[in-house]
Specification:
Structural class: mainly beta
Largest sheet: 5 strands, antiparallel
Strand order of the largest sheet: 1-2-35-34-33
Helix content: under 10%
Number of helices: 5
Number of strands: 35
Length: 536
């Protein structure tokens, strides 16, 4: 199909930014004939996946036995950490440490819940390139990001359940790089390249976790790979529980956990058997966990929930560091800054909040949406340091989308917003900044580690105004993605738009290099903000 960049009625095909004009390059969507039911299953989520190089074809059955020496090496890395700054993944607690199994077993899955639609064939596809993975209704679609073709190249139908969330691991070592979470609670890990190579159009080589809700039968709300975690991933559920899995273990391993004693309190329980998968359960909150996000280095985990709280955890030690409440209603989304210093949240109060890890408090809030904020994201390519390259004068660019169909872009300047707030107390009185610890005495005395804070008074927190506000879709939006060349927006019913940044034109369509900052690259540069930013 020819490239589609025609203007949607009521929506302009371009918008102005401080750096120039962003133009609608092309759109992606789904063939309506492939859907068995209406679209109103779960809001569309999009995952950007980059397959680095062509590998040999993968068979449908895997057998990967790890030698005892490798087991020792992996165990040492997980429990003791590594010298290159990679985050250790040991578990502690009063009930002992989690034991790790060194065996790895992958087998093809035959499951009555899985089938394929009559979508396009992708035989003999080498898989190298960049892809958009998105869910609509009962199906999961894969579209070629580097092609202007509107239709997807792959479609997977789930007959008795539907996909809700997914995540891709660009650093996966064994081919299983894609997670898929369903409304039934079931979770699958598969090889994206293998699915693209498969001419039979069926899900093959999949590992099945929490089969038929054996561990937790509530809806999956989010899945995420642990950065630098060697195959560990987490799954959040609508009942407030979060589970950690090891993809190197059999997905059908026996696992049982005691009932949660207090639904209002955070608690962690480890599996009793070394063969169990999942290996740990975190009870995070009462009510649904609506979103999760790891800091780039994997040290901290942020969650947002139906109870309106942002919670930030030290993932290794399994401790709650800090958290705070929305002004009103549930929080729906969260995102980390590239340097791990700030967390964005959005939700039912129509606001975007900026949370500082240094201050353990909200340091700014943005007002501009007319409905719920459904997606927030920092722009690693639009964040610019000052001329002297000091972290205190960095300007962070970030974006948000909402059910009001608008894309908003924001600039957070350290010297104009955060630093004045640190020097002044909430009443605007004498400075309380403590240079010795990096925190103000106000924060130190009023915000202890592990405390959940109420929402601050609005007059105490600096207000941000968006630098860009543009209606980009006709339907409510569910998220956005920043790449080096473009901004990707997507709405609830599965329509995706690619907006080219100023100065890039349509050149990115033929650029086979990754448009994504990889986890490894992010980790190596986590202490230095990228100087790349778009200009005309």
């Amino acid at each position: 199909m020819a490239a589609s960049s025609t203007q949607t009625p009521g929506v302009k095909a371009h918008f102005k930014t401080p750096e120039g004009r962003c133009k609608l390059s092309y759109e992606k969507t789904h063939p309506t004939g492939l859907l068995h039911y209406g679209h109103s299953k779960a809001p569309t989520q999009v995952t950007l996946a980059y397959l680095k190089e062509k590998l040999a074809p993968v068979t449908s059955t895997f057998t990967n036995s790890i030698a005892s020496s490798s087991v020792k090496l992996v165990t040492q890395r997980l429990l003791l950490g590594t010298g290159n700054g990679a985050r250790a993944l040991g578990f502690g607690g009063s009930n002992g440490s989690t034991r790790f199994s060194g065996s790895s077993k992958f087998a093809s899955v035959s499951n009555t819940n899985l089938g394929m639609s009559n979508g396009p064939s992708v035989s003999n596809y080498d898989g190298e390139g960049t892809y958009l993975i998105f869910n609509v209704g009962d199906a999961l679609f894969v579209s070629d990001y580097n092609s202007h073709d509107k239709d997807p190249i792959k479609a997977i139908q789930f007959n008795n359940a539907y996909p809700v969330c997914h995540a891709f691991d660009p650093e996966a070592k064994d081919g299983h790089d894609l997670l898929i979470g369903l409304n039934s609670g079931d979770v699958y890990s598969v090889s994206l390249r293998q699915q693209l190579q498969d001419p039979a159009k069926k899900l093959i080589g999949a590992m099945h976790y929490n089969k038929d809700g054996s561990v937790n039968n509530s809806r999956c709300t989010a899945v995420a790979w642990v950065p630098l975690g060697d195959g560990y991933f987490i799954v959040a559920h609508a009942d407030g529980n979060l589970y950690m899995y090891d993809k190197n273990k059999d997905g059908s391993g026996d696992a049982s956990f005691p009932p949660v004693k207090d639904q209002t309190q955070f608690s962690v329980v480890h599996a009793r058997s070394s063969k169990s998968n999942p290996i740990a359960r975190w009870h995070v909150c009462q009510g649904s966990i609506n979103g999760v996000a790891f800091s780039v280095d994997g040290v901290n985990l942020a969650t947002v929930g139906r109870d309106g709280f942002l919670r930030i955890f030290d993932f290794k030690s399994e401790h709650l560091i800090c958290g705070g409440k929305s002004y009103f209603g549930a929080l729906l989304c969260c995102s980390w800054s590239p340097d791990g210093k700030y967390v964005l949240t959005g939700g039912e109060d129509d606001l975007v909040q900026v949370w500082s890890m240094e201050d353990r408090a909200v340091v700014a809030w943005g007002e501009g949406h007319n409905s719920w904020v459904s997606g927030v994201c920092f722009d690693p390519f639009g964040t610019t340091p000052s001329s002297d390259d000091t972290s205190e004068t960095v300007t962070y660019r970030f974006g948000s989308v909402g059910q009001d169909t608008q894309l908003l872009l924001w600039d957070l300047s350290m010297d104009e917003v955060v630093m004045p707030l640190r020097r002044l107390g909430p009443s605007g009185g004498s400075p309380t900044f403590s240079s010795g610890s990096g925190h103000s005495s106000h924060w130190e005395s009023g915000r202890p580690v592990g405390a959940l804070q109420p929402s601050p008074l609005r007059q105490e927190v600096p207000k941000l105004a968006p630098v860009v506000a543009h209606r980009v879709h006709l339907e409510p939006l569910s998220g956005l993605i920043f790449t080096k060349e473009s901004i990707v927006t997507f709405c609830h019913d599965g329509h995706i738009k690619v907006w080219v940044r100023p100065g890039h034109g349509d050149s990115h369509a033929s650029n086979m290099e990754s448009p994504i900052v990889s986890t490894k690259d992010k980790h190596l540069n986590s202490n230095k903000i990228s100087t790349a930013h778009y200009k005309q």
